[in-house]
Amino acid sequence: MVTVLNHPLITHKLTYMRMEETGHKDFRENLDEIASLMAYEVCRDLPMKDITIKTPMAECVTQVLDTEVILVPILRAGMGLVNGILDLVPTAKVGFIGLYRDEETLEPHEYFAKFPKELEDSVVLVLDPMLATGGSAIAAVNMVKKRGAKNIRMVCLVGAPEGVAAFEKAHPDVDLYLAALDDHLNDIGYIVPGLGDAGDRIYGTK
Ligand code: PRP
Ligand code: URA
C-alpha cells in the first residue's frame, strides 16, 4: 500500500525545502518538523494493549503501545528524519544502514549495518527522504528482512513514480509512506521537481 500524506502543513514545509535558496539550517528544521508530522500518520495503527490504571478519580481500563518501534535510517540522508520521529516516539531504538548510490550505475552499495536485537518483534520504520529509482529502499528493506523484521514500513519524503513502482514490486508486503509523489526521474536519476541531493542539502556538503 502506498500512502501519500497530502497534508497542508507537510506540503507547506516541503515547499520551503524544495526552494533552491533554502540553506541547510532551514532545510534541516523543516525536515525535522515534517518527520514528526509523518510519524503521527505512520504510527496511526500501532498495536495497543489494554491496561488497568487508577486516575485520581477512578480505576479504568485504557491502552498503551504493545510494540517496540525501531527506526532504521539509510545513511546519510535518512538521519534527517530520525529526531523528528524520536520527538513523538522517544522510546524507539535506532539501527543504521549505510548505502550510497553509485552516480554512474545508480546501484546502491552497502557500507554499514548495525541493528538493535529486537527487529523480529518490532515495528521497523526504514527512513530515507528520497525514493528515486527505489534501489536504496529496496536494498535496505532486504537487509532488515534478512535479519527477521516482519512488520516494516518505508517512510520517504519525496518519491518518483518509477521508484514507487519498483518498490511495490519488490516489497508488496511493506507499506510505503510519502509526503509527496513527484513527476519523474531525470536522465541522471534525480527526482523532478524534487529538492536536489537530500544528503548534501541536510549536511551542507555541496
Ligand atoms: C540518496 C538518497 C537515497 C538514494 C535514493 O542517497 O538519500 O538513499 O539516493 O536513490 P535511489 O532510490 O535511486 O536508490 P545517496 O546515495 O546520494 O547517499 P547520501 O544520503 O549519503 O547522500
Ligand atoms: N537522491 C537524492 O538525494 N535526490 C534525488 O533526487 C535522487 C536521489
Task: Provide a compact summary of the structure.
The chain has 206 residues and is α/β, with parallel strands linked by helices. It is built from six helices and 13 strands.
Description:
- This protein is an alpha/beta fold.
- The protein is built from 6 helices and 13 strands.
- It has helices at 8-18, 24-42, 82-88, 135-146, 161-170, 198-203, and strands at residues 2-4, 48-54, 59-65, 69-75, 93-94, 96-101, 108-114, 123-127, 130-131, 151-159, 175-181, 184-185, 191-192.
- The strands form 3 sheets. Strands 1, 4, 5, 6, 7, 8, 9, 10 and 11 form a 9-stranded mixed β-sheet that branches. Strands 2-3 form a two-stranded antiparallel sheet. A two-stranded antiparallel sheet has the order 12-13.
- Helix 1 runs antiparallel to helix 2 and helix 2 crosses helix 3 (82-88).
- The longest helix is centred in the N-terminal third of the chain and has 19 residues, at 24-42.
- The protein is globular.
- The two termini are 35 Å apart.
- The mean pLDDT is 97.
- The structure holds 1-O-pyrophosphono-5-O-phosphono-alpha-D-ribofuranose and uracil.
- The site of 1-O-pyrophosphono-5-O-phosphono-alpha-D-ribofuranose (PRP) has 24 residues, from strand 4, strand 6, strand 9, helix 4 and helix 6.
